[in-house]
Amino acid sequence: MTTSIRDLAAACGLSVSTVSKALNGYPDVSEKTREQVRRAAESLGYHPSAIARSLKTGRSFNLGVLYSDDTQSGFTHNYFGPVLQAFKQEAERRGYDITFISKGQQGMTYLQHCQFRSIDGVCIVCSHFSDPEVQELLSGPLPVVTVDYVFNNRSCIQSENRQGMELLTRYVIARGHRKIAYISGDEGAVSGVRVTAFRRVLREAGIPLLEAYVAGGRYHDPATARRVTRKILALPDPPTCILMPDDTAALGGMDAIRAAGLRIPEDISIAGFDGVPILQMCKPRLTTVRQDTEAIGIGAARKLIHLIEAPDTTFPEILSVPCSLLEGETVGLQH
Amino acid sequence: MTTSIRDLAAACGLSVSTVSKALNGYPDVSEKTREQVRRAAESLGYHPSAIARSLKTGRSFNLGVLYSDDTQSGFTHNYFGPVLQAFKQEAERRGYDITFISKGQQGMTYLQHCQFRSIDGVCIVCSHFSDPEVQELLSGPLPVVTVDYVFNNRSCIQSENRQGMELLTRYVIARGHRKIAYISGDEGAVSGVRVTAFRRVLREAGIPLLEAYVAGGRYHDPATARRVTRKILALPDPPTCILMPDDTAALGGMDAIRAAGLRIPEDISIAGFDGVPILQMCKPRLTTVRQDTEAIGIGAARKLIHLIEAPDTTFPEILSVPCSLLEGETVGLQH
DNA sequence: TCGATGATCGAAATCGTTTTAGGTCTTTCT
DNA sequence: AGAAAGACCTAAAACGATTTCGATCATCGA
Known about the structure:
The structure is a homodimer.
Chain A: H1 5-12, H2 16-23, H3 31-44, H4 50-57, E1 62-66, H5 80-93, E2 97-101, H6 110-116, E3 121-124, H7 132-138, E4 144-147, E5 155-159, H8 161-174, E6 180-184, H9 189-204, E7 214-216, H10 222-233, E8 241-243, H11 247-259, E9 269-271, E10 288-290, H12 293-309, E11 318-321, E12 324-326
Parallel strand pairs in A: 1-2, 1-3, 3-4, 4-5, 5-11, 6-7, 6-8, 8-9
Antiparallel strand pairs in A: 10-12
Helix pairs in contact in A: 1-2, 1-3, 5-12, 8-9, 10-11
Chain A binds a DNA duplex through helix 2 and helix 4.
């Protein structure tokens, strides 16, 4: 089959241990034999078995990714997808592979699945942080980083949701809007921060906010967005602009607006959150807040690897990456 | 640390081998001790180490996924993304994890990366089948299935591109179009089959085809699509309908059409291929051919696992899954 | 010249499993 | 009763690496 270290040792006329040490840079092997081993490895096409190595060293160079979401969108999730992609690429650059930790594999919990595969650390990015299995993993023995969720003494990376929301709200106000509605996503810290920022910017601008203008919604759920939007449009004094929890939901909102016979942005304005690329190619181009998914994914990978490789010099921390405004065509001038 | 089989054996007062056999359903262990072992395993929270098991058995229950694409879209690729998602889910259902095989990991080729991780089999889905490393993998010792690429004596799964293209072309003709342009994707078997089907349906319908109407393009590249569309629109006798290689490219085409001051579908019609869900929520809803990405992903996983688990009863074969027409709003009636 | 010191190398244990080849004891058959 | 056959279990050898602990040998200072 594939050549093992024993074959290599035989080919060199050396012992297995010497060969191993030569390859792993131990000091007690002469430069001459080291070079000989290298050459032989090259010509035999030798590569060590990650599995055998892991068994002995306890390090697998494998990062777990816990990703579960309601929306069934999987890899193609408009926000998590690109985050995972960046995470994976950065991990690979550092010599790690990734494996997805999934529910119900052979009756194992998430944590057990990690131990089963001897995962070195895990990145949790999902919508079910209240799941007991997720909590078990969060308080378990493995290095962990989370995305968009702060847990006691664990590292987290997320967008500067406050700054992003401020950016958007200020922009909308600058376009002349005074009657602004806000539909939030699933309850949680992210939604909380955003709505708080929204309220504060309005207050600071001296703009009154009807409580009927702020409604609960769901992330990445166009159907819910459609329903909530319809309700808001039916208000006695409807808003001139609606802020949606994300771009996907915005699509549902736009649908409801069109169904009501209104034009975007002439009759009513709408904005999203996330900045999914493909929607920037559709008409009308959605005005939204771009989350730097690449920076988030890369940051998560770096932090996790750091936690693994230098546990003594690294501490849990909350990292934030700034958002930017994507000015599209869905927020009109209001006077 | 985590409990090993030795701990379990000690707790039961049995030998390691008996415990192993009890857990693995060997016949030469009494039902009584088997039950005892099961109970002890449960209460100690014992789960075997996948790594140690792999080392001994040579089976890792790990499927490699080779996925590289030009477009940098990664997981969020409109066609490959959903395919991979379905592949992953089906693999997990069968007790397999997946790991991505990537270029340049520690200076390893794809094949070496597979061997490094003791991958049981690999699913190749990418756009670079001409890459020597991909070819090495294709002719290597591991079980392989491919998506959208037929290789000598390897299993392949793909859409019934002929049938899909026929469906669309007939539909467009039925809507009254006679001057139909076709922009194809990157050169290759898939593109070939589609354009052939397109030509044949036209011929059978007795509709003449201007050679200037069929142009080369690129998959998932809106910029190229825009350029090619512009050129076609500038023809002395422009078509009334343009068929694009995929939905993403269609976006570029629509852009060029709008830039030319034409309306969709009143002035000119356009259709895509793939059926990406999010675009079905945008206006105007794109008329396109839906590829059953879920069936493709699941089929790939099943076939691969079958090749792994029952190599003697399984043979390489080409599997095809039918497409369906997604009637949107971008192909108008022509008279 | 002799012991000490370094420089290289190798033997063997180990990681956590699986699996082969026996081993022991009871039962059954003749 | 003696042998054959089952039933049940264990010892030990792998799998392919890493790593500890010695072993060997040449060199060197005194």
